[in-house]
């Protein structure tokens, strides 16, 4: 009992010890970042005047990231020019404010799909063109793809992609390709191009540059894209089939530094057959596809007509010989069984005949005098 009381008293003493917890740093009321690394002064205390409206469809997990760029748009744009909706699926019953936006003929979706048109091909805002609703999906590439497929209302919107001549300044996060841009960069380029006012781009990119400078000053390292790391041979991790398809689908550039052959040579394949199938399926090399089809067709011709190298004829002949041999073996087995059965029947008949002869002999002997 005394031991229990002693242990309880020791636990009570431990509970009184103050843990040296670090107090949270004061946050900025505008950007919600610590005051020491606040980028609000990069906006010079003014908001960007724009005619277009930016609509950000944000994945719920993106809100947990401390280095996201959507807050820059929220702080820089007027309240009527910025709308942010957080969800994985965007139905009109849950978000009625999106119905007017997603059904408007002046809404465009910044999404590099197969049928996307270039941003430079859109008519700029003017007397004959009303302002646009620029819709941006905020999340990782896989999350953005999932959100797009889960929202059928987005499929009817015209898809718009950037020209590829812009390089991301968001250097503290790894991008899949050199021309993959962050949310604030995509919105800044879209508004500056459609409104023909590149001061919008300069104003919105200044806070992003300050954010990257603060992170590098406190120990962050500038990141390069996966495309550049693979081309330079600094990517230690083997790139799988899915990653390669993503790089090609999101527009990996084929320049002098990173070409298709360089990317292919850096892949770590398990065996040659997997690599060959992968090149045919992923790279879309029509020549290899046609060559494979021609080889299959030639093999079929060789096997049927006996033309070409003759390997098909040999295989066919071998298979026919094997089939004939099996038939012969089966016939021989049947004949053997038949002969054994006939021999057994004949032996039984012979035995019966001998028995009958012996019975007749005994009867003849019984008729002799002195017997019976």
UniProtKB/TrEMBL annotation:
Residues 285-372 are annotated as: Disordered. It comes from the Eukaryota. The keyword Cell membrane does not apply. Keywords: S-adenosyl-L-methionine, Transferase, tRNA processing. One of its GO terms (biological process) is tRNA processing. Residues 24-220 form the DTW domain. The keyword Cytoplasm does not apply. One of its GO terms (molecular function) is tRNA-uridine aminocarboxypropyltransferase activity. Residues 285-296, 313-324, 332-372 have a biased composition (Basic and acidic residues). It catalyses: a uridine in tRNA + S-adenosyl-L-methionine = a 3-[(3S)-3-amino-3-carboxypropyl]uridine in tRNA + S-methyl-5'-thioadenosine + H(+). InterPro entries: DTW (IPR005636), DTWD2/TAPT (IPR039262). Its EC number is 2.5.1.25. Belongs to the TDD superfamily. DTWD2 family. This is tRNA-uridine aminocarboxypropyltransferase.
